[in-house]
Amino acid sequence: MATGFGIIGCGMIARFHARAIADCRGAKVVAGFDNVPAAADKFAEETGCKAYHDLKQMLADPEIDVVTIGTPSGAHMEPAIAAARAGKHIIVEKPLEITLRRCDKIIAECEKAGVVLSTIFPSRFHDSSREMKRAIDAGRFGQLTVGDAIVKWYRAQEYYDSGAWRGTWKLDGGRALMNQAIHSVDLLTWLMGPVAEIRAQTAMLAHKRIEVEDVAMATLQFENGALGIVEASTAIYPGYLKRIEIHGSAGSAIMEEEDLIKWDFAKKRKRDEAILEKMAQQVSGGGGAADPAAIGHHGHTRQFQDVLKAIKKKSAPAIDGPEGRRSVEIILGIYKAAETGRAVKLPLKSDPTLKARKVGVAGL
Ligand SMILES: NC(=O)c1ccc[n+]([C@@H]2O[C@H](COP(=O)([O-])OP(=O)(O)OC[C@H]3O[C@@H](n4cnc5c(N)ncnc54)[C@H](O)[C@@H]3O)[C@@H](O)[C@H]2O)c1
Fold it and tell me: Atom of ligand 1 at shortest distance to CA of 122?
């Protein structure tokens, strides 16, 4: 019997979830729930599934084995906890949540309920990212020296105006970093290893009516001693494909979105030419550089397949809760370093107190 999916939050990303589920063998979309009933109805009509106007009712549906959560980022925890308590496996959009406390609550509830929890980071499933990871694990870069994540994107003011939650501390949890560049921050720490120390500056320069940053610059020191930068913006016209650059004493690789554009090693291997050739022109859509909907859903499909495998084998998925929490911790560290002008050491003991965040925000 097909594994049934319920989708919580029937907005933009829910459409990508539905397409990805449709591409997974042995999976089907059973229902959608949104706290705006008309949004659930529209989604159900588009995808041919049931619409629920009440979360409890949806979570009581025996046809649903897994839920995906595509509500605003600071509203992931409540439905995730409810779903865990109902015994559903859970796939949460990035960021897992916008504070460590909220991430930890989700992780603890899923552990208690014995359900699979996965945080969505589709870029980790791209062939180019996997080749990079394999090369690092095989020691091909020598001593890792520099790891950079560069996200020079553009979002028009209308994008922020399109949803009241966008660009707010309470529900977005930040912006250029917490919403957009988080994919690259996740990739960077997956490839380079844990971050030990952060220095940073952020600014809000080219948008109105948003509380958070549209430019962020951070320098990182990784636990292995390598240095790196995170450069993130939604205020760079016209918006360019995001880049990950990994350098070491014996090799360098540069990934632009999904394309490997540099793959240079002191010790060459037979497959290198083929890898470079195969990993060019993989980008689908515009990679989200200027238009949030100009992304492919193939990364989501691979991640959903990974979760289906984890459920079947009763094992951990590739990106579980603690893996999803890593990028949130780094980004909160960057915000803290930017606000205090001081270096911040990781791991953080708890959520940093951020003056900017506290304005008008309760219960984070
Ligand atoms: N992986 C990616 O590439 C990617 C891309 C875009 C967005 N996202 C993530 O997906 C999430 C949603 O983003 P979006 O752009 O689809 O937003 P959106 O505003 O288009 O959709 C959010 C939907 O959730 C509904 N909603 C709000 N609160 C709810 C609640 N408590 N219960 C049920 N429904 C609720 C809203 O009515 C809306 O329909 C965010 O966390 C975002 O970071 C991920």
Answer: 1
Report yes or no: 147 and 246 within 8 Å, Cβ to Cβ. Answer: yes
Q: How far apart are CA 321 and CA 274, in angstroms?
A: 35
pLDDT at 195: 98
pTM exceeds 0.90 for this model:
yes
- Confirm or reject: Cβ of 73 under 6 Å from ligand 1: yes
**Where are the extended beta strands (E) located within 153-248?**
195-203, 215-222, 227-233, 243-248
Question: What is the per-residue DSSP string for 231-259?
Answer: EEESBSSS----EEEEEETTEEEEEETTE
CA 167 to CA 107: how far, in whole Å? 26
- Token reading at 143: 């001593």
On the 0-12 / 13-18 / 19+ scale of CB atoms within 10 A, 84 is buried
**What are the tens digits of pLDDT across the range 158-174?**
999 998 999 999 999 99
186 C-beta neighbours (distance < 10 Å), count? 26
Pocket test for ligand 1, best of 16, 33, 34 (most atoms within 8 A of CB): 34
Does ligand 1 come within 6 angstroms of the Cβ of 74? no
Residue of 17, 77, 78, 93 best suited for mutating to test ligand 1, as the one with most atoms within 8 Å of CB: 93
Nearest CA owner, ligand 1 atom 11: 70
